[in-house]
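[job 0417] fold request received: Transposase IS66 family protein
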Amino acid sequence: MALIRDLYAIDAGIRGSDPATRLSVRQDRSAPILARIDDWLAHHRARASAKSPLGEALAYIAQYREGLDRFLTDGCIEIDNNTVERTIRPIALNRKHALFAGHDAGADNWAVIASLTAIVQGHKQSLIDDLLPWNHAVTV
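[job 0417] inference complete; emitting C-alpha cells
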C-alpha cells in the first residue's frame, strides 16, 4: 500500500502540469516504484497457493498488471479512472434499483423519479420553488 501511496503522491505533485512534464516525472519517479510492485507481486505469487484467496487475488492483479503501466506512456492519461467511476456510479445504481420495480407500472414510476432527481441535481435548494409546475406559465 505504501508503494501505491507513493505513486499517487507523485501524481498529485504534477497534477496540472503539461503532459510532457507529467510523462517525464512519471518515467523518472513512478516507473521504479512500479518495478518494485512487480517484484513484490512475483515474490508473493511464488509463496501463496494459487487456490487460496490471496493467491487468487494476486493472480487477478497479475492478469491486469499491464494496464497499470499505461499512465507511464502518456502524460495526458490520469493514474486512475476514479473521475469516470464517480460519474457513472449513479447510472449503475439506478439500473440496479430499477430491477426491483416489480412490474411495468412500478418501472414507469421509477423512471419518473429517476428523471426528476436527475433534473434537480445541482439545483440550489433555495431555488427549488422555481422548478414547481405552478410557477411556469402554461402555453397553449
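[job 0417] notes: The chain has a mean pLDDT of 85. The chain has two domains: 2-80, 83-135.
[job 0417] exit 0
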